[in-house]
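Changelog entry: the Crp/Fnr family transcriptional regulator record was regenerated in this release. Current contents:
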Amino acid sequence: MERLDFFKLFHEIGSADYELLCKSLKTKTFEKGDFITVAGQIQRGLFFVKSGVQMSYFEAENKTHVIAFTYSPNLCAVPESFFQQIPSKCFLTCLTDSEMDYISFDQLQNLFDKSQQIERLFRRMTEDVLAGVINRHIELHSMTIEERYKTFCKRSPQLLQLVPHKYIASYLGINPTNFSKLYNSVKF
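Regenerated C-alpha cells:
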C-alpha cells in the first residue's frame, strides 16, 4: 500500500501537505536484532515501516511480555515515549531486516504548526492506535485462547511465518505449549 493511500484511511490530506510531510522524512535501515528504542531511552523519531517486522515488549519476572508487532504500512514507535518525550518503559526491536522512514519529534511539531491537515492526520492515526489498544485489552480479557489465536491469524496471518512463535504466544497471553497445540490443530 502506498503511503498516501495509507494516510487516506485516516484523513484526506492535499498534495501540498503530503509533499511537506514527505520532505521531512528520512530513511533508515535496521538489521534483524537491532534496537530502535531501549527501556530508559526517549524515542526521538516516529517511524513509518516500509519493510520488515518490529516488536515492542517489556521484561518482567524474567519473561518477555510482547505488546505489539509493527509492519508495513504502519507506524512504529513506543507511543508514550515519543508523544510525551519521556523515557520508554519498553524495548522496540527489529525481528527482521527493516527499512523505515522517520521524522523527529521536533520536526513533527513544526509540521503541526504549519499544517492543520497534517496535525489532524496524526491525531486520527493516534486515535486509531488508542482504539486498537482498547480492543486488544478487551480481547485479552474476554476471549478464549482459541478465539485470540483465530483473531490474530485473521488480522496478521503473515506474522506466523515471520515471527518466532514464542513471541506471538506472549502477545496473545498464551502459554507457548498451548500456542503450539493451537498452531498445529486450528487451520484457516
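The longest helix spans residues 116-142.
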